[in-house]
Amino acid sequence: MVELPWGLRPLEAGGRSFTLVRAEGRAFPSHRCLVPASEVHGGRGGPYTYALADGDWFYLAGIWRPAARGWPEAFAVLTVAANPDIAPLHDRQIAVIRRDARMVWLDLTQPETELLRPLPAGTFTVTTRGKDTAQMTLAI
Fold this sequence. Notes:
Largest sheet: 6 strands, mixed
Number of strands: 9
Low-confidence stretches: 131-140
Number of helices: 2
Mean pLDDT: 88
CATH architecture of the domain at 20-38 and 56-120: Alpha-Beta Complex
Radius of gyration: 15 Å
CATH superfamily of the domain at 20-38 and 56-120: SOS response associated peptidase-like
Order of helices and strands: EEEEEEEEHHE
Oligomer: single chain
CATH topology of the domain at 20-38 and 56-120: hypothetical protein yedk fold
CATH class of the domain at 20-38 and 56-120: Alpha Beta
C-alpha cells in the first residue's frame, strides 16, 4: 500500500487535475489501483451518501500514473453510469469493486466491462444530507 495524492496531471499547463475518469469505452491494461472506502459522498443536485447495503466496506476502482513533468505520482478513480439506487440523485457514480473482486481488478483476470459497471438495484443504501456539507465529492 502506498499513499498518493488524488488527481492526475492536467492535460494543459495550469489546468485542473483529473480526480475522476469515465470508464466507458476505455481499457486500463496497467496502472490499476484500489482505494478502500466505506461510503461515497456525492453532491451535484443535492448532497447524498451511498454505502453498501450489507454494511461491508469496498474499493473504488482507480488508476495511477507515475511522476512526470513536475507532477507527482498520483491516482484518480473511475466512474460508471449510476445504478438504480443512485440514479434518482445523479447519472454517474464511482466504480465500486466488492472486496471479493479486488484481485480480479488488479490481476486483469476478468474483462473490465464485467467489473466497471453499475451494480444491481438494492446494492447500496443511499442517504441524503443537508446542503451544508463541507466535503461534497468523496470520503474515503
